[in-house]
Write a structure and sequence with these properties.
Blueprint lengths: L4 E5 L8 H11 L6 E5 L1 H10 L4 H10 L2 H5 L5 H18 L11 H13 L12 E7 L5 E4 L4 H8 L9 E3 L2 E5 L8 H6 L4 E5 L12 H27 L4 E4 L14 H23 L5
Parallel strand pairs: 1-2, 1-7, 2-3, 7-8
Antiparallel strand pairs: 3-4, 3-6, 5-6
Helix pairs in contact: 1-3, 1-10, 2-7, 6-7
Length: 289
């Protein structure tokens, strides 16, 4: 007997482009998806799938773009941190422009332009598959599940990495990257009605080399994030009576903003589906006769 299969797509920056490969792999295998919830890059790729976009064409477009240049980010964590510190000092003196009424920060314009293109300017109401994007309230720490309005606005909020991009103003809230509170939104897709879930984890691995104080600082964030995610997965598995598969494409070596590895990340997602295809078919309750 078939089950309502949901996808939970996590964050991970450039690693999260593996979600596109996963979606292509599932599509090629004829696996029906009933609902999708995405955080950060998972929200971007999930939104494209939800509106029925040509995923092969999306892959070709992303592989042809210089995303680092378009988003004005570097592939170096150190340089990004230096930019964040410099920007913070300027904002300390001049004030934060993103807190001004009707502010339209330039960095968010870049995000919106990219995501408007990938979602064809469509809204949640246009989605062929029910979809939710997960963000976080900067001031309260609450998870915010977005399911109304233009998709590109919700996706921009879900991907607004603190310090790198300005928070997104939305309904008297300032929203930031959903991975802060819900890196792998299995519980969200269960709330949407999923009876079984495939969760795709493209988060940073714990086995990164630690040689500097900065490495140690980043590792503490990864530890906290992984512990929270593990607890959330245990709870989600209980809600699903074990009908949950977590797949991890081989992208752990890719740094958060290393978008030059887009083609590899997409291929890794496809390979992850192939490696788990029998289990996914069984999870979905599909007849293979």
């Amino acid at each position: 007997m078939s089950r309502r299969l949901g996808l939970a797509l996590g964050g991970g920056g450039a690693r999260g482009l593996a979600h596109l490969g996963v979606l292509i792999g599932l599509e090629d295998a004829g696996i029906p998806i009933s609902m999708i919830a995405g955080t950060s890059m998972g929200a971007v790729m999930g939104a494209a799938k939800a509106i029925g976009a040509d995923l092969q064409l999306v892959a070709k477009v992303l592989e042809s773009l210089d995303l680092n240049n378009m988003l004005q980010v570097t592939d170096s964590t150190v340089r990004e941190l230096q930019k964040i510190l410099g920007r913070s000092m300027v904002e300390y003196v001049r004030g934060s422009t993103w807190r001004e009424e009707d502010a339209r920060p330039h960095d968010l314009a870049r995000l919106r332009e990219l995501f408007r293109m990938l979602t064809a300017g469509k809204s949640f109401s246009d989605a062929e598959i029910p979809f939710a994007a997960v963000a976080a309230d900067l001031e309260t720490g609450d998870r915010v599940v977005l399911r109304e309005g233009p998709l590109y606005e919700a996706v921009a909020a879900s991907t607004s990495v603190p310090g790198v991009f300005s928070p997104v103003a939305h309904d008297n809230q300032y929203l930031i990257d959903g991975g802060v509170v819900d890196k792998l939104p299995v519980d969200v897709v269960i709330d949407m009605g999923a009876e079984a879930v495939v969760a795709v984890d493209t988060g940073a691995p714990m086995d990164r080399e630690i040689t500097t104080c900065l490495d140690a600082l980043l590792q503490t964030q990864r530890v906290t994030s992984n512990q929270l995610t593990n607890l959330q997965l245990v709870y989600a598995a209980e809600r699903l009576d074990g009908e949950l598969i977590v797949i991890q494409p081989d992208v752990g070596w890719i740094r958060m903003f290393a978008f030059e590895h887009t083609q590899y990340a997409i291929q890794a997602g496809k390979e992850a589906v192939q490696a788990h295809l029998d289990a996914i078919i069984e999870l979905a309750g599909l007849d293979t006769a």
